[in-house]
Amino acid sequence: MRSPAPLPAPLGDRPAFTTREALELQVPAMRLSRRDLDAPFHGVRVRAGASLDDRLRIVAYAKRMPQPQFFSHATAAMIHGIPLPLAVQRRTTLDVAVVRGDHPPSARGVIPHVLEASACRVIGVGGLRVTDPRTTWRVLGALLGLDDLIAATDALITGAAPIGGTLPLCTRDDLDAELRSSRGHRGVVRLRAALEAAREGSVSRQETFTRLALTRGGLPDPELNHPVVVRGRRIAVLDLAYPDHRVGIEYQSDFHTTPQRYRADLARLERLADLGWLMVQVTARDLATPASRAALVRRVAARLASRASR
C-alpha cells in the first residue's frame, strides 16, 4: 500500500487543522480520510498516532469552535494551569459553554454548559476563548470537593511566585469580590470555606494537602516555601517549615526519583543538616488515609518537641 502523499507545509506544521483549511489548499477530500490522519472532532484532523492529550484535544476543538462558544469549568482550569484531581484531569471530554440565549454545543466528546452573561467573563489565553480565572474558580465550586477546591484556590492566589515562576492569577480580594457577587450560585458555601482555608505560598496540591493535614492535626500553620539563606545566598526553598525550630517538611513526588534529582536532593539535605535543619520527608502514602495523616502529624510534632526541649 502506497504511503499517503505529503500534506502542504502550512498544514504539516500545525498540531490540528480543519478540513476546510485543507480543501482551500487544494488537498483532495479523499486525502483527508487516509490512515495517517485522525478526526477527533467533525471537520478537524490531527496526525494519526499523536498523543491526544488535553492540550491537543483543546486545540483541535478550538479549530472548529463557533464564536459564541468558549471553554469553561475543568477545561478552563487546565488552560489556566489551575491544579485539578487526577480523576478530573484524565477525563477525555471538554467543557464548552455559551451564555444563556446562545445554542450550546452538541459535539461528541464535549460537555455543554450554559452560563449567565451577568456572571461570566470570557478572555483570550493563547488564542483560546476561555472563562477568566475568577469565573473559572466560581464554577469549580460546584465540581470539586473542599480540599481540592482549597488546593485550586491556593494556586490561584500564589502562582509559582515563591519559586521564581509565574505570578498569581488572582488576589484574595478578587476571589472575595467574586463570592459577594455569586450569592445563590451552586457551590458558593464550599467556595467561601475554601477561600477562608486558603493560604498564599503553596505551589502544588501536595503541599496544600500536607499543610491541611498538619493544621487539622492541631499543629500551627507552617511557613510555605520558606527560603533558607546563608550569607545572602539562597541554598534551598523548603515546601513547609517551622523556622523557629528549624524543622522543615518536604513532599517527595515521583519526580524526585530520577538519578540526577536524587543526587541533588541528597546534597541539599546534607547542607541543610549542617545548618541545623531537621527535615521530615512526606510522600503520597503519608497523605492517603486518616491514619497515615495522623501518623504524619505525630512525627512532625515529635520533631518540633525535640527542638523545643533543647
How is this structure best described in words?
- The chain is α+β, with helices and mostly antiparallel strands.
- It is built from twelve helices and twelve strands.
- The chain has helices spanning 9-12, 19-24, 54-62, 73-80, 86-89, 133-140, 146-158, 172-180, 188-197, 205-216, 259-274, 290-308, and strands at 16-18, 37-38, 44-47, 70-71, 94-99, 110-115, 122-125, 128-131, 223-230, 233-242, 247-251, 278-282.
- Strands 9-10-11-12 form a four-stranded mixed β-sheet, with helices on both faces.
- α7 (146-158) packs across α9.
In brief:
This protein has 310 residues and is α+β, with helices and mostly antiparallel strands. 38% of the residues lie in helices and 19% in strands.
List key phrases describing it.
4-stranded mixed sheet, globular, alpha+beta, 12 helices, 19% strand, 3-stranded antiparallel sheet, 310 residues
The strand order across the widest sheet is: 9-10-11-12
On the 0 to 100 scale, the average pLDDT is 92
Regarding quaternary structure, what we see is single chain
| Discrete helix count | 12
Question: Into which percent range does the helicity of residues fall?
Answer: 25-40%
Low-confidence stretches: none
Shape: globular
Largest sheet: 4 strands, mixed
SSE string, helices as H and strands as E = HEHEEHEHHEEEEHHHHHEEEHEH
Count the E strands.
12
Helix-strand blueprint:
Layout: H1 9-12, E1 16-18, H2 19-24, E2 37-38, E3 44-47, H3 54-62, E4 70-71, H4 73-80, H5 86-89, E5 94-99, E6 110-115, E7 122-125, E8 128-131, H6 133-140, H7 146-158, H8 172-180, H9 188-197, H10 205-216, E9 223-230, E10 233-242, E11 247-251, H11 259-274, E12 278-282, H12 290-308
Parallel strand pairs: 5-6, 11-12
Antiparallel strand pairs: 1-3, 2-3, 4-5, 7-8, 9-10, 10-11
